[in-house]
Amino acid sequence: MKKLIYLFMASMLVFTTACDPMEDIHDALDAQESVISGEVEFAMSDDDYDFLDLGYGTFNSEEDAKAMIPDLLADKYPVWGEGSLANVSFQIYAPKRDERSLEIYTVSTADYDSYDDTSRYNNFDDMDQVYRLLDDLYPSPADRLLVSLTYKFYSGSVSTLNDGFLFVNGEWNFVQGFTSDEYEAMGEGYPNFSSEDEADAKIPVFLKDKFKYSDKSAGDIEAIMYKLYVGGGVTESYVKYFIFDGANWSAYNNEVTGTVKFGHDGNVWVPDNTIKYTLTGADITTMTDALGATYPGPTSNVAAYGSFDRREGSSNYWSDDMLVEGFNFVLDNLNPSAQEGQKYVITYIVYTGATGNEDMKLIKSGGSWILNN
Questions:
Q1: Residue 129 backbone dihedrals phi, psi, to 5 degrees
Q2: pLDDT digits (tens, 9 = 90+) for 229-246
Q3: Nearest-CA neighbor of 307 among 291, 288, 328, 292?
Q4: Which H or E run contains 27?
Q5: Closest C-alpha to 183, from 216, 215, 160
Q6: Which of 46, 112, 137, 357 could be 122's S-S partner, Cβ–Cβ 3.0 to 4.6 Å?
């Protein structure tokens, strides 16, 4: 009797192991599992910098940001995988030294008379003449010597200018200053400011007008020299930096904004320049105009329906090679100056018996766009 009971229990164990319903469910779920991808754009917050142990809220360089931000993305988006994109803005510490004038010099008649090309009119009309004088006045300047130079310059008419010249790494660097008329335009009764706060408030307003016809872009930094009255009849010159945000100028706080796009390669986040783009009707027209003579059936079909026939065997079938050929015309039209290595993910409508979307990854290589699988 015991043998029968043991045999029955053994047979039940075999049956249970062979027919575990939970294993079948897990297998089905694994078969249906797909990669979760997402796309996000954000500026790093104080908490993000704290996560990376950057208490000052800045990186030292863009290279540091590229190396450290992937750990932040892995923490913020733990379930995102291959194909995910993140466009991250951050601050980089990029200090520029404010300078206090060490030399104040006014060009004299004797200085102009020292050179044949300036003696007749007692003014300069070429900046090389100014640099020549500086080299003669300061034959062995200390690094970062700042000279506040007052001089006459002819450009249609003669103006008296006061600009800074900063000696750095073996050469003189021009620093924009203000004329007496420009100080007056900023509401000053004398050619100087009475406080640093006043300079910080007025100079950005003045620069917006001064550079309104110049080719200035967001992130441009301009060195400006101004005079400050410090009391007791003494005026000193200072160099300070101002940054343009695309619309307005402000005092530069030694930080610049950097932006880097990261992509998930299936294992980790890496710096990535991928651009996601959805094909438009105009793009389809570009393709059909370029390829109509080569593929009359497929181009006529996509022009009529707006979807690419992806049914193999169809007379209107678009193969991968045909799509790549057409997308070359689209991307060259869309981004003619794209650099080698630029990546795109193009989303387009397809017909496979029903309409849906497909993505194709492309990269610029050797001057053309090729598959980037």
A1: -65, -35
A2: 988 888 888 999 999 999
A3: 288
A4: helix 21-32
A5: 160
A6: 112
User: DSSP alpha helices (H): ranges in 121-260?
Assistant: 127-137, 180-185, 196-210
| Orientation angle between helical segments 296-305 and 281-291, nearest 10 degrees | 160
- Which residues lie below 8 Å from residue 158, measured CB to CB, with a gap of 6+? 121, 123, 152
Beta bridge partners of 275: 344
Look at residue 22 in the predicted model and tell me its pLDDT: 52
53-102, pLDDT tens digit by residue? Answer: 998 999 999 999 999 999 999 999 999 998 899 999 999 998 877 777 78
What Å distances lie between residue 185 and 28, 160, 206, 331, CA to CA?
A: 77, 16, 9, 49
Residue the block writes with tokens 């003045």 = 206
Q: For 164-192, b where at least 16 C-beta lie within 10 A, e where not — what string? A: bbbbeeeebeebbbbeeebbeebebeebb
What is the pLDDT averaged over residues 172-181?
A: 94
Closest CA relative to residue 216, chosen from 255, 182, 254, 247: 247
Separation between Cα atoms, residue 145 and residue 371, nearest integer Å: 55
Nearest to 372 by CA among 258, 273, 237, 240: 273
Between CA 132 and CA 172 the distance in angstroms is: 10
Return the biggest CA–CA distance within the chain: 132
